[in-house]
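retry 2 of 3: previous attempt timed out while embedding fe (ii) ion. Reduced batch size to 1 and resubmitted. Inputs unchanged:
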Amino acid sequence: MTNPEVGVVDGLPWLAADTLTMSVFHNALRRDLERSEILLGSPENLSPRRSRRLGRHLQWMMHTLRWHHEGEDHHLWPLLLEREPGSSAVLDAMQAEHHAIDGPVLALEAHARGLVAGRTEPRDVMDAVKTLAKPLMEHLAHEEDEAMEIVSRVLNHRDWNDFEQRAWIDGYTVWESVRFVAWMVDGVEWNRPIRRRAGLPAPIYWAVVKPLALIAHVPGLSIWAGTPAARVRSRVA
Ligand SMILES: [Fe+2]
Ligand SMILES: [Fe+2]
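retry 2 succeeded.
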């Protein structure tokens, strides 16, 4: 993860892109794959109803992950290549890793549909989660270490916001946005530096973000509530 840095380029103020939202998104994936493994590995916590809800949640998460990768492939890597042609080896590796993850994503989606329909055993879904988790965790770390380092060097704050808007936000309905934000902030430790970087006004933090960060413990609102999975937090550094 990077921090905003202020500099001067061609006599104009330059605020480096802060990739906090990328980090929060990646950590939400890590958090829910870990939570899924906990539920799938403990039949006592997996009632038929919770099982169906977990299947639907995994389907939504795989759709969201594909959308995330497509946004990077179609919008972010070309922009970085244009700004820094010497970064092509890293960017090619990013695309190749996305491509390698496509198969495990589709397999988990199919298993998640089976979980909803009651025709797939939790242990088979667990295998699909683990098959995806290995290459995905490696990719997320690689992207954070190398691709985000390029982002913070060649993109400014506005470039980054424009990219996020174009690639991921445009076209979302209000309800879709609320669901996505609630998922992102679930379990995040919102300490002062993170709040400052996110630019969260105090009333929004106290009235919306802080309650949503505890959503995993609310029965009826979260599939993790009342199970050990609810204790898994999102580790944003
Ligand atoms: Fe990413
Ligand atoms: Fe990626």
